[in-house]
Specification:
The chain is built from 19 helices and no strands. With 461 residues, it is mainly alpha-helical. The chain has helices at 11-22, 25-37, 41-69, 73-81, 84-119, 129-140, 143-162, 165-192, 197-205, 214-227, 234-239, 248-276, 287-298, 302-334, 340-360, 375-403, 405-413, 417-422, 424-460. It binds 4-fluoro-L-phenylalanine (PFF).
C-alpha cells in the first residue's frame, strides 16, 4: 500500500531533523524568558527533571508508534488500534500542527525582520529598553511588515517540505543544524567573556529553592512538551521515516541531550549578556525582541553579534516549522492520497490564512478579545496548553495501556537489542514512567490549564 513511502537517508539525518524539530523558538525565545520570569536556576532544575522523567519516555513512545506503523498520526493510531477514537487522537495532532504553525511562523517572521534590522544597524538608536520596546511596537504594528515576513517564512517552510524527506527536510537539517550550533557557541563565548557575565551564570545555575511553586512545576512540564515537539505527532511522523535498524532509545536520548544543551547554551548567551549590561532578566516574551537589541547596542561587537543571533533564531525556527508542516502534509499524502507538492502548497496557504487574525492581533485587531485572549494568545493557549498535553497523555496511555507492553517491547527492541541487554534497569524505568508517572503528571498539567479556563469563564459569567 505504502510501497514508495520515503525514508531518511541516514541515521544522522534522522537525528538532525528530529533535533531540528525539537530545537526552535522554544529553546531560544521561550525558555530564556520563562526561566527569567520564574527564578532562573530553580526553574531550570525542575525543567531538567521533567525532561528526564516525562519528556524522554513520551518521546520514545512517539517515535516508536511512528516507526512501527510507518504512517502519519491518524493512520498510525488507526493501524494499531482499529478504533476511530484513537484515529481522532491522531487527528488532534494534525489539527495542533496546523494551529501551532499559524502563530509560530509569525514570531519566526519577526526573527527574519530582525536580521534586516540588525544589518541596517537599527539597534544602535536605543539608549534604554523603553525606546527598543517602542521600536518593536512600531514594527509589529506595521501590517505590511508583519504580514510580509510571516508570508516569507511560510514560503521557506513550504519549499523545504515540498522537496521531500531526504531532499528537503533532511538536507536542510544537515546544513542548518551544525551552523546553528556554531553560531550559538560563538554567542555564548561572547556572553561569557563580557565583564559581569558571572551574575548571569549565577542566575541560570544557582537555584533558589524558595522560588519553586506548583506553578513552576506546571510551567516546566508544559515547556518540556513544547520544546521536545511532543504531544502532536511531530516525532511520530519523523519516526515513521526511520529504519528498524536504528535504535530508538539511543536516538531519543541524543535528541533530548541536543535540545537541552541548546536551551542551556542559548540561556547562557542571553543571561550573561543581559546581566553584563545591567538589564532585568524578567522582561517576558519581549526579552529577545526588546531587551536583547539594547544589550547588543551596549556590547562590544554588538553589530556583528546581533546579526548572528537573529540568523540563529531563524534557523532554529525553520527546522521546527518544517516538522509542523510535515505532520499535516503526511496526513494528506498517506490518507487522502494527495501529491506531496500539492499538499505542501495548499496546506501552507491555509495555514497562512488561519494565521492572519493572529498577525492582526498585534495591530488592527488589537482590541478584540475572546475569553480575555487576543487571537494570537488564543491559538497559542489552545495548542500549547490543551492540545499538546492532552495529546501527550493519550500517547502515554495508548502505548502503556492499550497497545500493551507485550507488543510494544519486541518492536522497541528492533535496532536496540544491545541497549536492552545492557541496560535492563533503564527499560524497566521507561515502562514504569510511561505507565504511571507520565499520565498522572500530564493530567495535572491539563487540569491546571482547564483551571485557567475556568477562571476566565468565571470572569464572563
Ligand atoms: N519544539 C519546537 C520549539 O521548541 O520551538 C516547537 C514545536 C515544533 C512544537 C514542532 C511542536 C512541534 F510539533
Amino acid at each position: 500500500m505504502q510501497q514508495s513511502r520515503e525514508t531518511w537517508g541516514s541515521k544522522a539525518g534522522f537525528i538532525l531533523a528530529a533535533a531540528g524539530s525539537a530545537i526552535g523558538l522554544g529553546n531560544i525565545w521561550k525558555f530564556p524568558y520563562i526561566a527569567g520570569e520564574n527564578g532562573g536556576a530553580s526553574f531550570v532544575l525542575i525543567y531538567l527533571i521533567c525532561i528526564a522523567v516525562i519528556g524522554l519516555p513520551v518521546l520514545i513512545a512517539e517515535i516508536l508508534i511512528g516507526r512501527t506503523t510507518q504512517r502519519n498520526p491518524v493512520g498510525a493510531f488507526y493501524k494499531l488500534s482499529n478504533s476511530k477514537f484513537w484515529a481522532a487522537v491522531g487527528g488532534m495532532g494534525v489539527v495542533a500542527g496546523f494551529l501551532i504553525l499559524s502563530f509560530y511562523a509569525i514570531i519566526a517572521g519577526w526573527s527574519i525582520g530582525y536580521i534586516i534590522e540588525a544589518i541596517n544597524g537599527n539597534f544602535f538608536n536605543f539608549p534604554e529598553p523603553a525606546s527598543s520596546a517602542e521600536h518593536f511596537q512600531n514594527l509589529v504594528g506595521n501590517i505590511p511588515w508583519i504580514m510580509g515576513y510571516f508570508a516569507f517564512f511560510m514560503i521557506l517552510t513550504m519549499v523545504i517540505v515540498f522537496s521531500g524527506i531526504q531532499k528537503g527536510i533532511e538536507r536542510a537539517s544537515k546544513i542548518m543544524m551544525p551552523l546553528l550550533f556554531i553560531l550559538l557557541i560563538i554567542l555564548m563565548i561572547r556572553g561569557l567573556t563580557l565583564d559581569g557575565a558571572s551574575q548571569g551564570l549565577d542566575f541560570l545555575w544557582n537555584p533558589d529553592w524558595s522560588k519553586i511553586t506548583a506553578n513552576t512545576i506546571l510551567l516546566a512540564l508544559g515547556h518540556a512538551f513544547f520544546t521536545l515537539s511532543l504531544g502532536m505527532g511531530a516525532m511520530l511522523t519523523y519516526g515513521s521515516y526511520m529504519s528498524e535498524k536504528d535504535s530508538i532509545p539511543v536516538a531519543a536520548l541524543q535528541i533530548v541531550i541536543l535540545d537541552t544543551l541548546i536551551a542551556l547554551i542559548a540561556g547562557t548567551a542571553i543571561f550573561t549578556s543581559v546581566f553584563a549590561v545591567g538589564l532585568a532578566p524578567d522582561a517576558g516574551p519581549g526579552l529577545i525582541f526588546q531587551t536583547l537589541p539594547v544589550v547588543f547596542s551596549k556590547m562590544p561587537g554588538g553589530y556583528f553579534f546581533s546579526i548572528l543571533f537573529f540568523i540563529s533564531l531563524t534557523i532554529a525556527a525553520l527546522t521546527s516549522s518544517i516538522s509542523l508542516l510535515e505532520v499535516v502534509v503526511s496526513f494528506f499524502v498517506d490518507e487522502l492520497k494527495w501529491k506531496r507538492h500539492t499538499a505542501a502548497i495548499v496546506i501552507s496557504v491555509f495555514i497562512f490564512a488561519l494565521g492572519v487574525p493572529s498577525a492582526l492581533s498585534f495591530n488592527l485587531l488589537n482590541d478584540i478579545k475572546i475569553f480575555g485572549f487576543d487571537f494570537f494568545e488564543l491559538a497559542d493557549f489552545i495548542a500549547s496548553n490543551i492540545l499538546l498535553p492532552l495529546g501527550g497523555l493519550f500517547i502515554a496511555v495508548f502505548v502503556a495501556w492499550i497497545w500493551g507492553y507485550d507488543k510494544v517491547i519486541p518492536n522497541l527492541r528492533k535496532g536496540a537489542e544491545n541497549f536492552f541487554d545492557n541496560y535492563p534497569l533503564l527499560s524497566s524505568l521507561w515502562k514504569i514512567f510511561l505507565k504511571y508517572l507520565s499520565p498522572v503528571l500530564i493530567f495535572l498539567v491539563f487540569l491546571y490549564s482547564i483551571g485557567l479556563l475556568e477562571k476566565i469563564f468565571n470572569v464572563f459569567s
